[in-house]
């Protein structure tokens, strides 16, 4: 480039000549794919009615494959615009923001990952349905805490917010994949008396993941805590057991 050139370099994360993208464009792209009939079905599936766990959540009616295609189109969306998307009333907009944050996290250096982790925690009140938690907590919170203190998870697990508690438990999937089961077992034991079925499912799911890698570890936990385990948690935990062994746990006649 000559000394007199007026060309400037593209900002980090954007290719030369590529136009900037913003959250308004992303919202417009989502709105263009809205399907009111499907949105009504999703609202029912995700329990958005009065008194239900996701009361007031709103849907556009966009399925995950289409949303992930949009994530490819908006992969250069800056973090501050991802954060703005998180404040949309529409579930799919928040999910798109989280898919993009996960991608930014995976591609980022340590400083960028730290920024995304704290952005995530600061905005976690917007991560308020199980699909949002499950698509993001292991890949941002869990991965960031590999090799770090897990004190934040202990605090989240004691929160009055169902979604904070689910983030804490589901984040441990990142540890499980590294063969580290201690936090999963500790948090699950602490949450045995949780009054939310979604937490029973989350804890049972994580226990099942432990069992896929080390069934004796899971069975040791089950023998100790079986009498207090909610039925849903137990069913999820033993889902992959041989039928005879599964029935033994369900009937309480295991040895």
Low-confidence stretches: 1-18
Q: What is the number of E strands?
A: 0
Q: Helix count, per DSSP?
A: 16
Q: What is the structural class? A: mainly alpha
Overview of the structural elements:
The protein is built from 16 helices and no strands. By secondary structure, the chain is mostly helical. Helix 1 (about 25-30) packs across helix 4 and helix 4 runs antiparallel to helix 5. The longest helix has 17 residues, at about 90-105. The radius of gyration is 21 Å and the shape is globular.
What would you say about this model in short?
This protein has 255 residues and is an all-alpha fold. The chain is built from 16 helices and no strands.
Task: Reconstruct the topology from this structure.
Blueprint: H1 23-32, H2 36-45, H3 64-73, H4 79-85, H5 91-107, H6 110-122, H7 130-134, H8 138-145, H9 151-157, H10 162-171, H11 173-176, H12 182-190, H13 197-213, H14 215-225, H15 231-237, H16 243-251
Features:
disordered N terminus, 255 residues, mainly alpha, 16 helices
